[in-house]
Amino acid sequence: MGVKPNDIFSVEYCEHQEEIPVYPLLDETKKSFSDRAAYVFNSWFDDFCTEDNVMTPESATLFIRAVTNEYCTPNDARISGMFKAEDKN
């Protein structure tokens, strides 16, 4: 993803326009996402995965629409590229 230590991402809950406090994205000690970032990313996954607890190209389009307000299709090059690179099933 190209994320570096001390990168700052600002997010809001769109439905409430609630500003989210600043949290570090990476935990330098563990060399991974911070606990708070992992919580947010896992929550997003839970919100958009299927009942079988997997992300599909179709559910990925719903995620993209929700977080970017951009319409795309399951055969969008970004989605198909991600699934080609990351899907191990």
SSE arrangement, N to C: EEEEHHH
In terms of structural class, how would the helical and strand content be classed? mainly alpha
SS field, number of helical segments? 3
The radius of gyration is 15 Å
Q: How far apart are the first and last residues' alpha carbons, in Å? A: 22 Å
Shape: globular
E-strand count: 4
Percent of residues in helices comes to 40-55%
The strand order across the widest sheet is 1-2
State the major sheet.
2 strands, antiparallel
**Beta-strand level of the residues, as a percent range?**
5-15%
Mean model confidence by pLDDT? 83
Low-confidence stretches: none
Features of the shown structure:
89 residues; mainly alpha; two-stranded antiparallel sheet
Question: Could you characterize what this model shows?
Answer:
The structure is a single chain. This protein has 89 residues and is mainly α. Helices cover 40% and strands 9% of the residues. It contains 3 helices and 4 strands; from the N terminus they run ββββααα. A two-stranded antiparallel ribbon has the order 1-2. The two termini are 22 Å apart. The mean pLDDT is 83.
Précis, in short:
The chain has 89 residues and is mainly alpha-helical. The protein is 40% helix and 9% strand. The protein contains three helices and four strands.
